[in-house]
Specification:
two-stranded antiparallel sheet; DNA Binding (I), subunit A; 3 helices; mainly alpha; 2 domains; single chain
């Protein structure tokens, strides 16, 4: 697909991925960063493989990471999957923080008891 289409989508979206909202690498940056997860790519909301059209109503700029994760999924399936994954990761992070806090408290208690 023509680079000017990607550049137009990238500009229209303020340089942000349509799915995750992260700032993507400027498409004019060259081929040096082809494998960076934040490289701007064109994605089809409804994949061509599922009968989606290759037109402006079906195209968005997406970071490489989201585009690869989405694969041939329809946009609604991908958003549901991505949302659940994000919620799961957030829950894991909260649990990890809680466990870290408990470990610090236990260490503090042990050091307090050791001095008695």
């Amino acid at each position: 697909m023509a680079n000017h289409v990607l550049l137009e989508l990238w500009r229209f979206q303020g340089g942000r991925c349509a799915y995750c909202g992260r700032t993507m690498v400027d498409p004019r940056a060259g081929a040096g960063d082809r494998n960076t997860p934040l490289r701007a790519t064109i994605d089809h909301l409804r994949p061509l493989a599922l009968g989606g059209r290759d037109d402006g109503y079906n195209r968005v700029a997406a970071c490489l990471e989201c585009n690869v994760l989405k694969g041939p999924l329809h946009i609604t399936e991908f958003i549901r999957l991505r949302w659940n994954t994000m919620l799961l990761n957030e829950a894991k992070a909260r649990i990890r923080l809680t466990l870290d806090d408990r470990a610090r408290m236990a260490a503090k208690e042990r050091s307090g008891h050791a001095g008695r």
